[in-house]
Automatic annotation (TrEMBL):
PROSITE patterns: RESPONSE_REGULATORY (PS50110). PANTHER family: RESPONSE REGULATORY DOMAIN-CONTAINING PROTEIN, STRESS RESPONSE REGULATOR PROTEIN 1. The keyword Phosphoprotein applies. The keyword Chaperone does not apply. Residues 1-114 form the Response regulatory domain. Signal peptide: none annotated. The lineage of its organism: Bacteria, Pseudomonadati, Myxococcota, Myxococcia, Myxococcales. It comes from the Bacteria. Keywords: Coiled coil, Phosphoprotein. It comes from Pyxidicoccus parkwayensis. It holds the Pfam family Response_reg. This is Response regulator. SMART domains: REC. The modification 4-aspartylphosphate is found at residue 46. SUPFAM superfamilies: CheY-like (SSF52172).
Length: 162
């Protein structure tokens, strides 16, 4: 998110080598509309937007469950000790980079968030697979109990080993 087209273009050029889909937002309102439609690995947020303060955008993002944990990286021309940055960190910004940006550093930080997002997705898939396997195991155990019951074979108590 940046209200200056030249800054958005520079970000796209810097991040293009990562091969990720980038979503551009030139205003706070546009950014808020974009996060309604999809999830992001990381959000790059300029604090000084034309229509809204970046902290206000961040505050609204954090009010939505879907975006509560999305990492937000602040990009600003302000010094790292600037008092304007403190509210952003209180609202959950995870990092800060001062403009002009160092392309390799920005790519490394964004890559880290993308990799984290991919690992989280893989973990969710594994959890779903474990849940499915657990459900199938429960079904198989019930079916076995029914078969044993029908054949007169005693059904062991579930807490006791056979």
């Amino acid at each position: 998110m940046d209200d200056l087209p030249a800054n958005l273009f520079a970000l796209e050029c810097i991040l293009a080598p990562l091969g990720q889909r980038l979503v551009r937002a030139a205003s706070g309102q546009e950014a808020l509309r974009r996060v309604l439609d999809e999830d992001f690995a990381v959000i790059l947020l300029d604090l000084r937007l034309g229509d809204m303060n970046g902290v206000d955008v961040l505050t609204l993002l954090r009010q939505r469950e879907r975006n509560r944990r999305t990492p937000v990286l602040i990009l600003s021309g302000m010094d790292g000790d600037a008092p304007e940055l403190q509210p952003a960190f209180k609202q959950g910004a995870v990092d800060y980079m001062r403009k002009p940006l160092v392309p390799d550093v920005l790519r490394d930080r964004v890559s880290l968030f993308v990799e984290l997002r991919q690992m989280q997705a893989a973990l969710r898939r594994q959890e779903q697979q474990i849940g499915e396997l657990s459900r199938r195991l429960d079904e198989a155990e019930r079916e076995l109990a029914v078969r044993r019951s029908a054949s007169g074979t005693p059904v062991p108590h579930p807490e006791r080993a056979e």
